[in-house]
Structures are given as structure tokens and as C-alpha cells.
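User: Good morning. I'm curious how 2-acetamido-2-deoxy-beta-D-glucopyranose would be positioned relative to this chain. Could you predict the structure with it bound?
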Amino acid sequence: MDNLLLLSVSFLLFSSFYAKNDCHEVSICGNNSFEIRYPFGLESPQNQHCTYNPSFNLKCNNQGKAILNLPGAGYFYVRDINYLKQQIQLYDPYDCLPKRLIKFQLPSSSVFKPVYYRDYIFLTCSTDTLNPYFSVIGCMSNSTISTLASSYMGIVSSEIMSFYSCSVTGTVSLPVSWSSKEEGVFSSELNNDLVLTWHETDSTEAKKIFRIVALSLVIPALMCSLVLTCYICYKQSQEAAALPSTSVGGAAVVPRPEMISGLDDSTIESYAKVVLGESRRIPGPNHGICPICLAEYHPKETVRCIPECEHCFHAECIDEWLKIKGTCPVCRSNPSPVHLNFS
Ligand SMILES: *[C@@H]1O[C@H](CO)[C@@H](O)[C@H](O)[C@H]1NC(C)=O
Ligand SMILES: *[C@@H]1O[C@H](CO)[C@@H](O)[C@H](O)[C@H]1NC(C)=O
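Assistant: Good morning! Here's the predicted structure, ligand included:
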């Protein structure tokens, strides 16, 4: 009992100690609609005590833009963060994402990963002869040269090349957020935002699991021990209150130890045991829960009933109880061994 309490308390302290190390502050940068919260953190003087993973560190510039620095790939503005899907949506501060994507490279240790990679052929074509309906990459084009990108590999051997005086500048695997969506011959999607997913590092994941396990154990354990402690205290105070009334002629009758001592195993075993069926019906003045552990009865559980008062309990609960206290926990009737032999 005391051990259980001690264990619960130390568990609680331990888990709250771990919880304190993470930052659970929620910030907003500028006019952005998304929150900046765990695992992300906003670099600011009041968040100095937070020890989140520095990869998730965001800055807020004086124009109210949230900035993510991706080591190896540079700075990006953050458009949105989806905490449920663990996705962050980024755009280029200079408004030319395709140029950034061509050189985009993340170290394998990065916590961020592109959703998909897709191969694109980059072409430069003469601007004045080019079909105006082709999607060109505006920020990589001027009045003489236009840049286009295609995920259609057959483009290299097509008529287009000679007809518009195009040349191939290279084939690059680009990080994209769509898998095989239908695109035109020339992609107009590369100007869309870059979407990356994140995976929490093992230690934060382990901490999270640890916290969940700790909390799911500690709260029921604490409640159980609290209920039991209260019950035992209540019982003891009741017994203590009852004692003076047994005094006869001014001489207090010292209660003999046997009065509060428990029953022996063979006596307990002689009480009727019932295995509950699907209906979980229990005979006598009983309700759906075991008064000792306060848990509901389930089919196939074994209950034991005290023959005197017909109060029933989980067999394992009442057995332990009767070994310590020889009375019914509900009505405190004292089962008489004589009666038992005939029950
Ligand atoms: C934020 O929004 C308000 C009103 O919509 C606007 O007046 C203000 O300039 C915006 N601030 C920034 C930093 O964009
Ligand atoms: C257009 O861009 C190409 C290569 O980027 C460059 O060589 C050329 O001078 C540019 N032309 C104009 C008119 O800016």
C-alpha cells in the first residue's frame, strides 16, 4: 500500500520533470494564421528556457514572416504548419522556388523530408518563338531565353526541341508534394509551395510515449490508493469510535486481536464462488461494480459472496480483504463460521 503510493508519487515527479524540459508555449508570428508550438519553437528571449530540438527553431522577422533555416538548403518562409499531418509548407523569400528546388539538398540527418521526389528535365528555349500557352518558369526567363521544366522524359526526342530552339540544361530530381498528378507537358506546379514532413527524433518520441505510459499508470494508481486509504482510514476511525462503547462499568475492554484479524484460507474458500455469465447478473443486493476495487464486473470474472449478507465482490478483491479484516466491507457483518459450514 505504502509502496504503491511511493511508486506513484515518484512516477509522477519523474514524468513531470521530463515534461518540464519540453516547451509547450504557443506563439504566433506576424499575421500568420498558424500557431508555432511543439515541436516547433520561436526563438525569442522569453523562450530561452525551452530545450526543443534546434532543427525546429523558427525566427520571426520584422515583417511578421516566420523563417525556417534548413541546414544545407537555406532559409525559407513558412506558409503553414499542419501538426496533424506533420507537414510544413514553405516558400522562397525571393519568389523563385524552382531555382531553389534545383539546388535543394537536405542532409540525411535532417528531421525534415520531402513528401515525394520527381524527375524533371529543364529546357531553355528561345522566348520570341515559344508557344505562349506553355508554362514557363517566369523567374528564370527573360525576353530572350525562357526556362521550362517537364516531367515527361520523352520531351528530349520530341519535335518541340528543334521547333522552339530548345536545349536541355539538365535532369534534376525535385522535392514535390504531389505524386503522379496529371501535369501538362510543361509543369506549372513547381512554383507551388514546398511541402516537407517531419519526424520527431527518437528521444522526443520516447519521452512522449514514456509520459503517456506514466500518466496512464499514475492517475489510476493514485486514485486507487487514495480511495483505499480513505476507506481504511474511515474504517479505522469507525472502529476507534466504536471501542469506548464496549467499556463495561468504566473498565475499557481491550479488544482482543482476533476481533479485527482476518479469516483463514479454508474459511474464505468455503464461501460460494460464482463465475459471471454474459449477463453479469449477480445475486443479492449488489450493483454492477465491485465495492472494493470500484471496477465494473465483466463476463467470466469470478465473484465471491458473503453468505450472511449476500454481498458479492471480485473473488481476488474479497479474498485479500477477508485475510486482513474478517468482515464484509459493505455492511461489516461478521460471517459466522457456524453458518458457513452449512452454506
Ligand atoms: C496585419 O494585418 C493588418 C490588418 O489585416 C494589417 O493592417 C497589417 O499591416 C498586417 N501586418 C503585417 C505585418 O503584415
Ligand atoms: C536572359 O538570360 C540569359 C541567361 O540567364 C542571359 O544570358 C541574357 O543576357 C538575358 N537577357 C536579357 C535581355 O536580360
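Residues 142-145 surround 2-acetamido-2-deoxy-beta-D-glucopyranose (ligand 2) (CB under 6 Å). The chain is about 30% helix and 20% strand.
Let me know if you'd like a different ligand tried.
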